[in-house]
Every structure is written in structure tokens, then in C-alpha cells.
Structure prediction request, 238 residues.
Amino acid sequence: METTLLILILLGDPSGADLAHGLGADLQRRAEDKAQVLVGADAMAALKERGLTARDLMATPNIGTHLTGGNPPAPIIVLHVDRGERGGDVIVETRVWVDGRSERHIAIAGDGKDALPAVLSGVLSLIGHRIGAPQRLGPPDDNELARLAENNRWLDLLTRVAEVTDRTPRQRYYEVLAYARLGQRDAAVIALNHLREESPGHFLIAAGEELIPPKPEAVTVPEATPAPAPGEENVLRD
Prediction:
């Protein structure tokens, strides 16, 4: 019998309680009976049963990687949702422990917008495969691309950018960055040329140019020295 997946959503700042409960409700709806989602105090109680607290996870994230790891991965996922405000914007940092990995997603909502859609999109990109839900809600936002770059997940970054038909200058820049980091110079140059053609004069063009590695120097093979004629190998000449 398959074990039900347990998803724990822990709170950072108490102001994020409504957001965390909204996230939990949406994940439960998508997972249906494949997972049980616990939020807030219920999630803390379940974590305590395992001899841990939220402070343990935040202080030493590798604890969460071991808690959720294994082969196959353990049937538990832990999210830590921390909401804050800065300059009128709502900033939500979500730490995710899944499949033996520790991930981080940051969502920013300005102008009074609801942060939940951005938070949900980021979380699904990390755990959607475990609950049978689509992992993408739409084109990648800049936060997602930055997160992939921070974690050196260049192939995943290129996959996400490839899903976009009309790419923004920033998406093109990340495409150049990924190819450059993978050592694919020709592909990076092609992406940079697309950026030049689509957004002439954009400041990211210069930034992209700095990423292109130099062309490898051509190796010059020295001409072979003719072998001495037989009998001349040890002849001394004036």
C-alpha cells in the first residue's frame, strides 16, 4: 500500500498565516488524496513528533535534506513560508525541503497585489511532480530564473526559457548566462545575437557580452624537422 505523502507548511512571520493557509488549501486541492497538507500549528506538531522544530531546519538546513531524502525519497515535504514587507512590496521567502534537497523561492508582490499566485507557482515548480500536479503555471518569472541560476541548474533554466516564444531581454540574458556556464560558447553567442536584434541598445547586451568566453586559441603544429640521412646522425659539423 502506498504511503500518503505528508506536506508540512510552517510559518515564519505570523502575518503570513492567511497566505500559508491559502497555499495549503490549493496544494490539497491539487493533490487530492495523494497527500495530506498540514499548516501552522498542525504542521509544527507533526514535525515535533519527528523530534524536530522549525528552528532546527532553519539553523541547519541539511537536517531537512536528510528528513526528506532517501531512495525512494521519504514521503514528506516541508515548506517554511516567511512573509515580510519592504518599501510597500510584499516579499515572501519560501524554503522547501523535498527529495533530499533544500531549495528557496522568493516571490514579490507590489501595488497591493496578492502574493499567493507567485508563491504557488514557485512551490509547484519544486514539488509538483510529487503530487501529480502541473509544475508550471505559465512562463518563468525573473525570480524563478534567478533561483535556478543561484543553484547552478543551467539545464533546467534553459528548459524553462525554451518554453517562452517571445522572450524578454532578461530571459535572453539568462539564456546567454546558462550556455556560457555550460561551456557552450557558440550557443551563448547565438542567444546574445538574438538579444541584440530583439532589443537594440538594451543595457543587458553589454552584460551578456561580458559572459561570452574568449575563443579558444588555434593550436599551431610545428613543422616536422627532416630526419637526418642514414649515417649522418652523429656527424659533427664545423
Notes: The first strand starts at residue 5 and ends at 11. Residues 23 and 120 are 6 Å apart (CA to CA). The first helix runs from residue 17 to 31.
